[in-house]
Amino acid sequence: MRRLPPTIEQLMRIMLVKKEQLRKTQIKRMPWKKLKATFQIAEIDNMSDHLRNIRIDRERVVVAQTLDNIGVTSIFNTKNQSHVNLLQAALGNSQQLNDLLRESSAESKLALIRNLQFLKHIPNDKRLQQLCKDLLEELGMHDEMIHLTEMI
Q: Does any domain span residue 140?
């Protein structure tokens, strides 16, 4: 049986569908093009190389390691800071902790807070909650203190 050519109505419907598909495709691509141009975003050719380079770059600037492997970067651009592990002291002897905190860098204090958060000790221990609030206040990190308080 011979197939009849499409009617004008059918052609119009096909054209409308194609036009709508093209419009949707253009709309989807437009924000990405704008973002790429505005923020000068480069294409990533090899994701594993890219992630490795990010890790290497991060390791260069981390001055205090944390349990979540993110670490803390230098806040005041000071070099050769000594960073002590305050975590054991925070979970144990409070007098020892106070002595260590007096001599600790801002980065060590932030690493302590991050480690306590990572281990989920802050919500369960009022003493550690207050300690973290006091440290953030001392460092002038008021927004972070508010966020910490909201999390508890």
A: yes
